[in-house]
Amino acid sequence: VVALSAWLGWSNWQRNGRRGKVALLEALRFVAVAMLTFTLLRPEFVREIQRTDPPKVAILTDASGSMQTRDIVSTNNIVARGAWIDSQKKRAFWTPLEEAGSKVLFGPFSAPPNLGATNALGQAREIGTDLSGA
Q1: 107 pairs with which residues across the strands?
Q2: Distance (Å, rounded) from C-alpha 22 to C-alpha 43?
Q3: Helix crossing, 20-40 with 2-15: angle to 10°?
Q4: So what's the pLDDT on residue 129?
Q5: Residues in the chain where the model's pLDDT stays below 50
Q6: Distances (CA, A) of 29 to 13, 19, 20, 104, 118
Q7: pTM for the whole structure
Q8: CA 109 to CA 67: how far, in whole Å?
Q9: What angle do CA 51, 55, 60 make, to 5 degrees?
Q10: Is residue 86 within a helix (H) or strand (E), and if so which, with residue range?
């Protein structure tokens, strides 16, 4: 295909009086055909990485207030999202991952902020009264 494109470009350039602009256009066409042909050959770069650490799988659970919503239908009754997550944790669905050598990590996200006594400045900012934090 590339050789045919080169021959057609050369003959077209010869036919048009060997002008520079035609040569530039034919060269551009040849480069485009060559690049297209190269991409059709599906070039790949394969690199194998030797892992020294076991793969880590993170299981994140939502800890926001929306987990109190009762909208999971489970065996004829409606269960809150948080209760359903707890039942799934008891089932230990991640054991095949651990058996395969993966390290399983658990963690909540969107947890409500800690508004204890040690977080008085943060609590004042969240409530919106700057005088309490001063």
Answers
A1: 60
A2: 31
A3: 170
A4: 53
A5: 133
A6: 12, 15, 14, 54, 71
A7: 0.45
A8: 11
A9: 155
A10: helix 81-91
